[in-house]
Design a protein that fits this description.
Diamine acetyltransferase 2; alpha+beta; 163 residues; single chain; acyltransferase; Aminopeptidase; Diverse_Substrate_AcTransf; 36% helix; five-stranded mixed sheet; 6 helices
């Protein structure tokens, strides 16, 4: 097997990353979920102040996986990081690529004074076992936190009532 290299994503990786976002959405049984294109990823990640951090895993210079994360802030502990996505193509799963990608995110978080790394995993997703191997806590069962969301339409309605 070729050497697996983890590196910062480049603008030219955005087409592959967008394709992987769709593959991840398909796996998560939400094929209509992703609404962005690779141009949005390019703009938001590489123009002006980047809105996200992204690493890619490569084999023979071909992108085979990625992570996408960003900084958050916790009133309990300060600077934090959120892991939005981690994805490895099926041919490279169970070859420690996910571990290398996750470790790169953890290193970035620690080097930038983050006190925690948050993420969500679907209830049925076997990836939970992967995260538990590295001592991730399931906050839903441990602390009874539930995740909520306002979708764009509801967010607009809520904002329209703002004085």
């Amino acid at each position: 097997m070729s050497e697996i290299i983890i590196r910062k994503a480049r603008r030219e990786d955005c087409e592959a990353i967008r394709m992987f976002i769709q593959e991840l959405a398909d796996y998560e049984k939400m094929p209509d979920g992703p609404k962005i294109d690779y141009k949005t990823l390019e703009r938001d990640g590489f123009d002006g102040q980047p809105l996200y951090l992204c690493n890619v895993a490569t084999s023979d210079e071909k992108v085979i996986g990625y992570t996408l994360s960003y900084y958050t802030y916790s009133t309990w502990c300060g600077k934090s990081m959120y892991l939005e996505d981690i994805y490895v193509t099926p041919d490279f799963r169970r070859k420690h690529v996910g571990k290398k990608l996750l470790k790169a995110v953890a290193k970035e978080a620690i080097e930038n004074d983050c006190h925690k790394l948050d993420f969500v995993v679907l209830k049925w997703n076997p990836a939970q076992e992967f995260y538990k191997m590295y001592r991730a806590s399931d906050l839903t069962s441990k602390e009874q936190w539930h995740c909520y969301r306002f979708v764009e339409e509801d967010l607009k309605k809520l904002a329209s009532d703002c004085e």
